[in-house]
Amino acid sequence: MDFNTPASYAFALIAFSAALLSVISGAAVVIIYETGVVHKDMKCLKNLSRHQIIFLLLWLAFPSICLAVATCFLFVSLFTACFCSSNPIVIVIIALGCLVFFINGFLTLYVFKCVPHLDAKPAEGSARRDV
Q: What is the pTM for the complete model shown?
């Protein structure tokens, strides 16, 4: 692998920064969530607007999002270093890995597109259960 290209270093630096941000924000989420979640706090979720609930869920998912970004940038960093290599076997293996990566992305989008959307309203005649 040829790590002499500045692009692979830049992608690796971004990956490291995102991973570090994931660890720091994950610790903050655990500390804040652990101290603030009691039954009286959970009852106030009914009074929140849709945007506040979305932002709350994004805040809770932020460490996982940062880790996913870090993984993708590290993947791109290694791909960049391998594509700049002079070894043709490494280039072919990385090209096949990249092809499989993009096929996996398209299959994921296809599966999400095929999932049927269900109505939020209960069907008529069905018993509604409040928990």
A: 0.66
Cβ neighbour number for residue 68 with a 10 Å cutoff:
13
Nearest CA to 25 out of 88, 70, 90 is that of 70
Contact 12, 91 (CB under 8 A): no
**How far is 85 from 88, CA to CA, in rounded Å?**
8
pLDDT at 20: 93
What is the per-residue DSSP string for 48-62?
S-HHHHHHHHHHHHH
Q: Cα(28)–Cα(64) distance, rounded to whole angstroms? A: 13
Virtual torsion, Cα 80, 84, 85, 89, nearest 10 deg: 70
Q: How far is the C-alpha of 72 from the C-alpha of 89, rounded, in Å?
A: 23
Q: Can you tell me the distance from the alpha carbon of 56 to that of 48, in angstroms, rounded to the nearest whole number?
A: 10
54-75 per-position pLDDT tens digit: 888 888 889 999 999 999 899 8
pLDDT in tens, 82-128: 888 888 898 898 889 889 989 998 999 998 888 776 666 655 665 55
Residue 27 contacts residue 93 (beta carbons within 8 Å): no
